[in-house]
Amino acid sequence: MSARKTATAGPAVARKQETHLGLVRRARRMNRTLKVAFPHVYCELDFTDPLELSVATILSAQCTDVRVNLTTPALFARYRTAADYAGADRTELEEMIRPTGFYRNKANSIIGLGQALVERFDGEVPNNLKDLVSLPGFGRKTANVVLGNAFGVPGITVDTHFGRLVRRWQWTEETDPVKVEHAIGELIERREWTDLSHRVIFHGRRVCHARKPACGVCVLAKDCPSVGTGPMDKAEAAALVKGPETEHLLALAGVVAP
After folding, report:
1. pTM of this prediction?
2. In terms of Cα–Cα distance, which of 253, 212, 230 is closest to 8?
3. Are residues 143 and 74 in the same domain?
4. Which residues are known catalytic residues?
5. What residue numbers bound the domain in which 93 lies?
6. Minimal CA–CA distance to 195: which of 18, 89, 39?
7. pLDDT tens, N- to C-terminus, the chain (258 residues)
C-alpha cells in the first residue's frame, strides 16, 4: 500500500513552494472546476422557511442529513412557529427527535431557540450573524447555513467535510473552524461562499472520502497536492464514487459508469 502511494504521489511531492497569490489562483481555479462537477448544489436538509432550517441544522449535529430529513416532516407538522417550540412538551419533543441522537441536548436547544425568538425577535429568525450566534443551539456553522440558504447572505459553512478537504488541498493548515472560515474567505470571492461550501461538502461526500478518496477519477487531481492519497487506477477509483452525480462525475474523468 505504501509503495503504491509513493509511486502515485509524484505531483504532490514535486509541487514548488506556493506563494499566496499562487494559492489564491489555485483555490479559485479549483472552485471553478467544482462548479463544473457540481453545477446544481443545494442544502441537503429539507426546509421551507428559516425556522425549519434552523431546527433541522440543530438536529444535524452528529447525525446524517438523511436521518434528519426522515425525522423533520412529522416535527414540522407538529410545531409550526417559534411559539410552538417555546411551549413544547419536552417529553413529546424528545421522543420525536430521538432518532437524530443527543435528543435531550437538542430538545433543550430547540425549546430555548423558540423562547429566544419569541422574547427577542417577535418569533422570527433574524437574518444577521451577530443575532443568530446569540441564539441557543447556534454557532457560526449553523448561522452560516441559515444565512446562506434561507436568506441568501453569503457564508462559509465549516463542517467536518469542509475542514478536512481544505486542509487536504492545503488551502489552510488551520483546524479551528472559525480560523478555517476566515482563511478560506480570504481566498474565495464573497459571492461564492455559500455555493463553495456546498460544492466542497458534496465533493467530500461523493469523491474525496476521508480514508480512501477516489483520486484516479477526481476532477481536481491536477491542482490537488494530495493526489495519490487514494487509488489512481480509474476502475478502482470509479467504484468509490457515490451519490446521484456519479455518472456525470465519471464522464468528466473519461470513465463510463458501470
Report:
1. 0.87
2. 230
3. yes
4. 141, 159
5. 50-151
6. 39
7. 333 333 334 444 445 799 999 999 999 999 999 999 999 999 999 999 999 999 999 999 999 999 999 999 999 999 999 999 999 999 999 999 999 999 999 999 999 999 999 999 999 999 999 999 999 999 999 999 999 999 999 999 999 999 999 999 999 999 999 999 999 999 999 999 999 999 999 999 999 999 999 999 999 999 999 999 999 999 999 999 999 999 999 999 999 876
